[in-house]
């Protein structure tokens, strides 16, 4: 039986100085976990993965010729965009769905999921970012891709896309400006939720290292099929290229986090 991979690396031209990340790209589980006690329909929902993001990331990486790292496991198993000490790392209930395979859970199983899935993914992200930095000879531009539901608990989310961030504005402000320039979409700034989350992917790999970055969310109904993905690739690819051409987005500079001091700070 082929071993279940925690991540996939899409190779690209590291000298371009850009890398794409997709924390919630897939809805897969190893066979040994079955369906975590859930109905199969749960794995078609946002609780299992970010709908449309795998296709969007693959096509953008191909169009731009840059590397990407994709998580291969469902966030129902363990969420790679959470810190190891985050109580929502392994969810017992997600958007009303009780996850029998996650409760009760032993300390041994918790550590197994960290060691087998979460940590290898982050090790791959760390290595890929370092490789791009070494080949490009300066700080890479890191762009993380996610999607969100059109409504939450009955409240519509009008934004077509949104940019989440903490305090490092270098890539964020020009990204928002370029997205709004066409005038045909509503772009959220730290909507529908705040981008400052201690020990998440951007905090861990970019904020703490002073690497320019942005997390882009696209509403999932806009990228739920091939035509939608293609349209957003056409929209985003030239914007990402323009950002990557900005010299100020290839310098290291550590910004303070709104979540509090970094672990090495007093």
Automatic annotation (TrEMBL):
- Lineage: superkingdom: Bacteria
Gene3D superfamilies associated with the record: Zn-dependent exopeptidases
Which Pfam families does the entry mention? FGase
GO MF annotations for this entry?
hydrolase activity
What does the UniProt keyword field contain?
A: Hydrolase
Keyword Hydrolase present in the record's keywords: the answer is yes
Record has tRNA processing as a keyword = no
Which named protein is this?
Putative N-formylglutamate amidohydrolase
